[in-house]
Amino acid sequence: MRSEMRLPQLAGIVLDERAELTLAELCRACAAQAELIEELVGEGVIEPIGPEPARWRFTAVHLRRARVAVRLQRDLGLNLAGAALALQLLDELEALRAQLRVSGRG
Predict the structure, then answer these.
(1) Which of 57, 58, 97, 99 could form a disulfide with 62 if both were Cys (CB 3.0 to 4.6 A apart)?
(2) What is the domain range of residue 81?
(3) What is the pLDDT of residues 11-43, one digit of tens each?
(4) What are phi and psi for residue 4, nearest 5 degrees?
(5) If you write DSSP's letter for every residue of 40-51 in order, what string do you get?
(6) What is the pTM (predicted TM-score) of this model?
(7) What share of the chain is helix, strand, coil (3-state, %, to 5)?
(8) Are 46 and 62 in contact (CB under 8 A)?
(9) Which CATH number is 58's domain given?
């Protein structure tokens, strides 16, 4: 009998950068309830396109930010304000790294 090694199953979402998600689609992609996504919007973590939740649209950038915020909240127990601050700091770090690459020091 031959033993077979089982590899873990990976799941992912491939999005065109121009693709737009509805609130329901973003919720599924983040494994989060609509109320949590609405709270992320209220904290300024993500800024949807559209006037009200029923008409909101989210880009791939929103998806990435929402997934990170949800993970920070679930895995580290951060509240939404803490997740928003962590995302802001991560954005600043990335901007600094980009500046270093441009200046030839990175």
Answers:
(1) 58
(2) 23-103
(3) 555 556 678 999 999 999 999 999 999 999 999
(4) -110, 135
(5) HHHTTS---BSS
(6) 0.75
(7) 60, 5, 40
(8) yes
(9) 1.10.1660.10
